[in-house]
Design brief:
The chain is α+β, with helices and mostly antiparallel strands. The protein folds into 2 domains: 89-186, Jelly Rolls; 217-482, no CATH class. Helix content is 64%, strand content 11%. The protein contains 16 helices and 8 strands. It has helices at residues 2-35, 37-49, 52-69, 75-83, 195-216, 218-233, 235-253, 262-295, 298-303, 309-349, 357-365, 368-389, 394-417, 423-435, 445-449, 456-482; strands spanning 90-97, 101-111, 115-122, 126-129, 140-143, 149-151, 164-172, 178-186. The protein has a 4-stranded antiparallel sheet with strand order 1-8-3-6, with no helix packed on it. It has a 4-stranded antiparallel sheet with strand order 2-7-4-5, with no helix packed on it. It is elongated, with a radius of gyration of 29 Å. The model has no long low-confidence stretch (mean pLDDT 86).
């Protein structure tokens, strides 16, 4: 039970975020129902007909886990930390302490147990206490004008503060006024609860984006909905999901012989498996949904209705992307759970000390940027595959997309290795980097496996590159499809 509690605690914390999202959506649906019953019924109907239904099933699984595990989890500590999220963070105060002043009141607001660091900097010698009239009674801090007083958990100094601190009393015995700067940084006792609102916002964003696109682009959304249904109903899609679930579970028990680094290998292998399966399904679906419909003249019948060629191509791309997103949600959620378990499993197999649940949480959350970047790479290749499918059938599409996948990762390496060497190789490497997508931008599996934090600005730039290259590929698809004879 001890090991079970360790690796399930991070899963429970993630489940709380999903549960908060579900409650928020139910409240919003209730408000919409009171305002316009027809709108609420239309939203429910769209949810039942789209991938949102399957995303809702995944969300309900996490809701069940949150309810089932709550009796054995640190509920009070988690909710206390959640309530303190808005009250913590860095703070800075600068005040002037007059000369020959005792117990100058300086308002502050922090809990001593939440302190991560603090510092006092002054141009005069000062004494800082926490009780009025007891400047030199312990605990007090002596700040020398020539050197700031800095405390952090790694320093040799004592923290000195206890309980809730609302005022500091500063004594200045010098003949000149002192400029005192107080800096302190606080954080909640359980930092892991920061992932709860992030998980809630992420799930809400999926629904919000889907409904927004359906409202803004109804013609494209109708094609996308039909394409998503077609993609999910394919045997290869179900097979890919089943194979992915089985492989992710099997990877746990494969000995990698890495001398204690099996978790890194597991994360790298799992991310690659999810991405490859998604790309394969995307290319296959693009060929079946676009090329086969053109060859079978189904597209001609569809375009005879009030649907333009532009809506047809964009709808196909969006529908395949939604199907890929569903695969990432299902396999990504399964991977998060298994990574947390893998940490405990490896410690037991290698006879290492039992890890705490915070270590499992860190490994689990660390793979989320890798999943996001892998999905972006899948979106780029989906756009390319849709463009190719407007002219070529399945087999050439698979070959070309496979070649682009390989060259997109090797292009930067070819360009770098050709410096000062063969001019043709240098030109070829630069051409690949210019024309083909630089998929290496999305390849951070090594960093994710090693536990390196991926900055948010890197994710933002990668998302911008994904959007721009996908837009270029869609423009090419529209050009290729515009004069395609469908008869």
């Amino acid at each position: 039970m001890g090991n079970l509690s360790i690796w399930l605690t991070p899963v429970w914390i993630l489940s709380l975020g999903v549960t908060a999202a579900v409650i928020s959506m139910l409240v919003l649906l209730g408000v919409v129902w009171l305002i316009s019953r027809r709108t609420a019924e239309a939203a429910l109907r769209l949810e039942r007909e789209s991938i949102l239904q399957w995303v809702s099933y995944v969300a309900l699984v996490f809701v069940g886990l949150s309810l089932l595990l709550s009796p054995v989890m640190p509920v009070q500590q988690v909710f206390h930390s959640l309530s303190r999220l808005t009250a913590v963070g860095p703070s800075s105060t600068t005040v002037t302490i007059p000369a020959k002043t005792d117990d100058q009141d300086v308002p502050v607001q922090f809990e001593a147990d939440e302190l991560q660091s603090y510092s006092f900097k002054s141009n005069q010698d000062l004494v800082i206490g926490v009780e009025k009239g007891k400047a030199y009674a312990a605990p007090f801090i002596r700040v020398e004008g020539a050197e700031p007083y800095v405390w952090s958990p790694s320093s040799k100094l004592q923290r000195l503060f206890t309980g809730s601190i609302t005022d500091l009393y500063v004594t200045n015995k010098s003949d000149a006024p002192a400029d005192l700067t107080i800096n302190y940084d606080t954080d909640v006792p359980l930092r892991e609860v920061r992932q709860i609102p992030i998980a809630a916002v992420t799930f809400l964003a999926i629904y919000a984006v889907y409904f927004l696109l359906h409202w803004l682009f109804p013609g494209v959304s109708i094609i996308a909905l039909a394409t998503t249904k077609e993609a999910v109903a394919q045997p290869i899609y179900i097979l890919a999901l089943v194979v992915g679930v089985c492989l992710l579970a099997l990877y746990i028990y494969i000995p990698y012989n890495t001398f204690g680094e099996d978790v890194k290998m597991y994360k790298d292998s799992s991310l690659m498996t999810i991405m490859v399966l998604s790309i394969l399904v995307a290319v296959w679906t693009a060929s079946v949904s676009v090329a086969d419909e053109i060859e079978g003249r189904t597209a001609l019948t569809l375009l005879s209705k009030p649907i333009s060629r532009r809506e047809f191509v964009l709808g196909k791309f969006l529908g395949i992307s939604w199907a890929n997103l569903l695969m990432f949600v299902v396999l990504g959620a399964w991977m998060l759970i298994l990574v947390s378990y893998k940490v405990v499993y490896d410690s037991r197999e290698t006879s290492n000390p039992e890890p705490n649940w915070q270590a499992c949480h860190a490994e689990m959350i660390g793979i989320v940027p890798g999943l996001v970047l892998s999905f972006m790479e899948t979106v780029v290749l989906t756009a390319i595959s849709v463009a190719i499918s407007t002219r070529l059938p399945m087999l050439p599409n698979l070959v070309i997309c496979g070649s682009i996948y390989v060259l997109g990762h090797l292009g930067p390496l070819i360009a770098q290795s050709s410096v000062g060497q063969n001019e043709f190789v240098a030109f070829f490497g630069q051409l690949i980097a210019l024309v083909l997508p630089v998929l290496d931008h999305f390849n951070v599996q090594a960093a994710v496996a090693g536990g390196v934090r991926i900055p948010l600005d890197y994710l933002a730039w990668a998302a911008l590159y994904c959007v721009l290259y996908s837009a270029v590929a869609m423009l090419l698809a529209l050009i290729l499809f515009e004069d395609r004879d469908l008869a």
